[in-house]
Amino acid sequence: MTRPDRPPAPPEAALYPTTPDAEEVNCRVRITGAVARPGQTGVPLDVFVTADVEYVGIAIPVDFDERYIRVSGVDDYLLGGVSLVDNRSELPGANPEEGNVALMSSTRIGNRRIAAAGEEVRIATLHVDVLDSAAEISDTSLDVRPVDTTRGFRVAPAIFVRALDDATSGGDLQEVRQEVAPISIARGVLAIRPSSTTFVGDANLDGALDISDPIAILAHLFLGGDLQCLPAADADSSGSLEITDPILILSALFLGDPPASTLRAREVDCF
């Protein structure tokens, strides 16, 4: 049996003469949002990381409200990645000690870079089950913050950078792995809706047709914002999201062409 060539290993990460500070590293974490209904299973939420330096290790703990959602699976895209899921709900209320998943790279002792400087990489996809209890809320969030794992140790958000340091070597420069915390975190918001259906134009799935819908589409197109209902945002039914979609909704709202009632009459399934 002929096997394909093994993919090349990532290049070595840069070795910095001194440890970059948090502003130089500029590490950003972004969790995507979604819309789901109570009882829905396997809702995918992606976790992305970007930094302005090259780095060799990562630790991203994600805390969630175990009263309403649980993580049923993790697709880990890190080389040698480890994900520790904690779905316990033993203490009253939402607690950082419960309901979390720690995403970590086991390559912190290696020199291979995880990403190039400025490159956004998807490190994991979390598959979330929405509990029936979520019927009592309109949304719940997933936040990046320190958590206590089921294995008895605490994980704080950080990436690990190769740098030279003389603090531990009596004046002789020595390579160390320096831990740098993210400076920007975009939490993921899971919107809870009782039904999967709405009408064309209701891009943010709030049950109304107003100015917030074209604004949400424009934010998605040009700022990378999340959309609550992609099918509803495709106002012209072209099969793709383009600038023509928010323009059509604005025309319906302020010019009556087409009438807003024609958009509301067209039902779509969001998920």
In short:
This protein has 271 residues and is mostly beta strands. It is built from five helices and 17 strands.
Q: Which stretches are poorly predicted, pLDDT < 50 over at least 5 residues?
A: none
- The strand count comes to 17
Classify the beta-strand content into a percent band. Answer: 25-35%
Q: Architecture of the largest domain, according to CATH? A: Sandwich
CATH fold annotation of the largest domain: Immunoglobulin-like
> How far is the N terminus from the C terminus?
42 Å
Mean pLDDT: 86
What is the level 1 CATH name of the largest domain? Mainly Beta
Largest sheet: 8 strands, mixed
Approximate helicity band? 10-25%
Helix run count: 5
> Could you say how many structural domains there are in total?
2
SSE topology:
Elements: H1 22-25, E1 28-31, E2 34-36, E3 43-50, E4 57-64, E5 69-76, E6 81-86, E7 100-105, E8 121-130, E9 139-144, E10 147-148, E11 154-155, E12 158-165, E13 174-180, E14 184-186, E15 188-192, E16 197-199, H2 212-223, H3 230-233, H4 244-254, H5 260-264, E17 267-269
Parallel strand pairs: 1-14, 2-15
Antiparallel strand pairs: 1-3, 3-8, 4-7, 4-9, 4-12, 5-8, 6-7, 9-15, 10-11, 12-13, 16-17
Helix pairs in contact: 2-4
